[in-house]
Amino acid sequence: MYTFNLIYPNLSDIPFHAMVFPDGQPHVKLKMEAIKALDRATPVRILSRLSHANDLMTVLFVKNTLDYLEFEHVELHVSYLLAARMDRVMLDGEPFSLKVVAQVLNQAQFRKVKIFDPHSEVSTALIDRSYAVSNHTFVQGALKDFGVEPYCLVSPDAGALKKIHKLASFLGAAEVVECMKERDLRTGALTHFKTTADDLEGKTCVIVDDICDGGGTFAGTAALLKGKGAAMVVLVVSHGIFSKGPVIDGIDKIYTTDSYRLVEGVHTFPISNFLL
Ligand SMILES: O=P(O)(O)OC[C@H]1O[C@@H](O)[C@H](O)[C@@H]1O
């Protein structure tokens, strides 16, 4: 398998130049000396973030180049999927953005599309020949680094609960704590934080979720858990956006990956550990 690593191009000798035209558009150019040496039947994978629209275009440009060079087997490994959270029409007048991204990817006809911890099952339902890579190994690595036993796993909302139960059986975790919240889709305001747990006296709680964006979900959940006696609250999120910074009230330690971007000030695992 030959890898086009668009995430850490500085770390490997890749046959590809990622440049930018003066007007800001992505400009890709394969290094033909290296490419010519490859058998066209060699499976090729493109490892990329799709954090912004230009990332998607770059991937499509590389795929198009590989198509006209007649490579037969091209896979896409996606660390972060553009529009994964827009997995339905939220409000009147808004698009079904994930469907648009899926249609574009489907048109490119990758042999396989691997997606690291997508927000919901809608991504893999819409993208042809795709499957999800779970966060299990990443969370296991974070817990090993953190090193405190025992702990309870916390699902911050109903949407994450099914995944948390699968994770708990993978890790052999004894306890799962279920939390709930409500989000006003118009304002984004979070309210009504609740949990099924009665007493968390002295416990270490590990909240696991796909994305930390503004962090409101996790500040609210941490306040709830600490109000029930939790001694420590750790946050483990696959995709660290941290739009309001990586410091979140009530969270004692944060683990993430560089799936969306490199994050300063947070313990960050390289995504290539989980996607290759
Ligand atoms: O509260 P913030 O960090 O803004 O948003 C993160 C939450 O929003 C959801 O899409 C994610 O799955 C996560 O539960």
TrEMBL record:
Any one GO molecular function term: magnesium ion binding
Q: Name one Pfam family in it.
A: Pribosyltran
- Domain (Phosphoribosyltransferase): give its ranges: 146-256
Mention one GO biological process in which this protein takes part, according to its record: 5-phosphoribose 1-diphosphate biosynthetic process
CDD domains the record matches: PRTases_typeI (cd06223)
- Please provide, in alphabetical order, the Gene Ontology terms of the cellular component aspect for this entry: cytoplasm; ribose phosphate diphosphokinase complex
The domain of life for this entry's organism is Bacteria
Q: Which Gene3D superfamilies match?
A: 3.40.50.2020
Q: Which UniProt keywords apply?
A: Kinase, Transferase
Q: What is this protein called?
A: Ribose-phosphate pyrophosphokinase
